[in-house]
UniProtKB/TrEMBL annotation:
This is Translin-associated protein X. Residues 1-32 are annotated as: Disordered. One of its GO terms (molecular function) is metal ion binding. The keyword Nucleotidyltransferase does not apply. Signal peptide: none annotated. Ring-shaped heterooctamer of six TSN and two TSNAX subunits. Interacts with GOLGA3, TSNAXIP1, SUN1 and AKAP9. Interacts with the homodimeric form of C1D following gamma-radiation. Interacts with TSN and C1D in a mutually exclusive manner. Belongs to the translin family. It comes from Panthera tigris altaica. CDD domains: Translin-like. Mg(2+) binds at residues 129, 197. The keyword Cytoplasm applies. There is a cross-link at residue 279 (Glycyl lysine isopeptide (Lys-Gly) (interchain with G-Cter in SUMO2)).
Amino acid sequence: MSSKEGSGGFRKRKHDNFPHNQRREGKDVNSSSPVMLAFKSFQQALDARHDKYERLVKLSRDITVESKRTIFLLHRITSAPDMEEILTESEVKLDGVRQKILQVAQELSGEDMHQFHRAITTGLQEYVEAVSFQHFIKTRSLISMDEINKQLIFTTEEYGKENKTPSSDAQDKQFGTWRLKITPVDYLLGVADLTGELMRMCINSVGNGDIDTPFEVSQFLRQVYDGFSFIGNTGPYEVSKKLYTLKQSLAKVENACYALRVRGSEIPKHMLADVFSVKTEMIDQEEGIS
């Protein structure tokens, strides 16, 4: 019984150390204290950072949508009679995408890009895919990361009228140079997505009776696949994950080239697409089973 009293007494003495009156008085906090002022400044900094992050997410979404529209436009080249007209229209669309990237560069002025990279990486990957797809159609080669970054240097002579920065020193920044650099990871992921668009381009070319394009795409994809194979598992997780999709696209293109080379002379051109689509479905089923 003495032990119970002892334990009860201990609990009582523990509560006595924090009287109710003192706890109630602690609610009245001085808003002008240095601690509260410091936390208010932290709150303002975090709110500003969150608002900037949300603006970058919206810009990245716009960049993704416009880049996809450019890719859809470029796919019309396989069936359009005038290729130069579509390339000119695609360049206009890409200029509009670069205007959005200019706004991203303005938002990141004076900031560490890697802190906001997750907000813009999706849009940058889609832009790399669109630019590299257009470059391949023009030159049948892969655009380098340096060439892409050179297109993302903005000066006031080209974009001075569109520069609308909400900051107080907008007049000083208006005469500066804005730039945004594509990271190597964004470049690699954009090129990996490019392979899927080239596979679709190959399918459309076969359907339109174009025999040369599938072999050009096949040779190009082999070189890209060899390059990614050198990276292997040492690169970022996203790159190694897309290597499997790249291998699938290469297999489908090689299958089309095989059908054209072996049976191209005996199958009418308007039936090549049907034969190729059937073989593609068989490959997908076999890969799904394995």
